[in-house]
Amino acid sequence: MDDRGLAADGTIAREGARDRVPAAFAPVVSAAQARTVAALAGDRLHSVYLYGSIPRGSAIPGISDLDMLIALHDEPTDADLAAARAIETELDRGFPQIHGAGILLDSKRSLLSEHERHDGGFFVACLCTPLLGEDLAQYLPRYRPTSLLARDTNGDLAAMLMRWSARAAETTTADARIALARTVARRIVRTGFTLIMPAWGGWTSDLHRSAALFGRYYPERGRQMQIAAATARTPTTDPEVISMLIDDLGPWLAAEYTAVHGEKTSHP
User: Fold this and answer.
1) Residue 123: which CATH number?
2) H/E element holding 192?
3) What is the pTM of this model?
4) What molecular function does GO assign, one term (predicted)?
5) How far apart are CA 143 and CA 149, in angstroms?
6) Do 89 and 186 share a domain, yes or no?
7) Quick check: is 4 in a domain?
8) How far apart are CA 99 and CA 80, in angstroms?
């Protein structure tokens, strides 16, 4: 059966769960929870979520990241951001089974706002697994793989390409090039998938499957997207690969995306 990641009613199913966390990553999740409560306890912390390969159950020790979203009652402050960076550093140093820790911070108001309904709201409702606190998904709609969802999740690729191009020009170390390649490749594959998502009629976060599905609709760009998926998993310092992503596949994808789904509106 061709699993399209949908619930019985045709809406996108939430993709992760606490009981899918691989045993090797359970201590990391417990530590992340404890450190978050210690650093942001009190009136500021609303809820905490996992996302990515760990709650999906596909994480690989030594390769996969720990990804977490922290929702605050109010807008994040500089002190909140510093606390999140400190938690990332502690987890990265203390647990060799993760490649790194990444923590997003946002406010409850922002995540539930109308402007974020098909971006941050979708992210919480479908891609995040509740870890602590009240689940904001109960206040959000059920989502379908529509062109509106495609536009609001990844319709800003052109703006991202400008930032990446500037960053590539300033990058001088191998570690920085690897980080850039991974960021760019992941976003391009996800954008390639959401380009064809409404036509395919489902959802997946698997990058290799995303690239394969994209290739069904755009076979002339399929090989480049496969390279992007491979780079997302195993980043490279090869300037030709990075240039292909930022200067060739990326611009084409941004133009095609706008032609098919329109461009994401900027935040007021």
Assistant:
1) 3.30.460.10
2) helix 174-200
3) 0.91
4) transferase activity
5) 8
6) no
7) no
8) 23
Domain count, the chain: 2
Residue 7: inside a domain, yes or no?
A: no
- Residue 12 counted as domain residue: no
Give the DSSP letter of residue 59: -
Q: Do residue 103 and residue 164 come from a single domain? A: no
CB-hemisphere CA count at 13 Å for 79? 5
* 3 state DSSP class of 48: strand
Per-residue pLDDT of the chain (268 residues; tens, 9 = 90+): 478 999 999 999 999 999 999 999 999 999 999 999 999 877 899 999 999 999 999 999 998 999 999 999 999 999 999 999 999 999 999 999 998 899 999 999 999 999 999 999 999 999 999 999 999 999 999 999 999 999 999 999 999 999 999 999 998 899 999 999 999 999 999 999 999 999 999 999 999 999 999 999 999 999 999 999 999 988 999 999 999 999 999 999 999 999 999 988 765 4
Residue 249: CB atoms within 10 Å? 21
Those residues with Cβ within 8 angstroms of residue 42's Cβ, 6 or more apart along the chain or in another chain: none
**Domain membership of residue 36 as a residue range:** 18-139
User: Quick one: 257 and 180 in the same domain?
Assistant: yes
Coil vs helix vs strand at 95: coil
Of 105, 121, 139, which residue is a domain's last? 139
Residue 232: how many other CB atoms lie within 10 Å: 23
Inter-residue contact 99 to 64 (CB < 8 Å): yes
Amino acid at 244: M
Do 97 and 158 lie in one domain? The reply is no
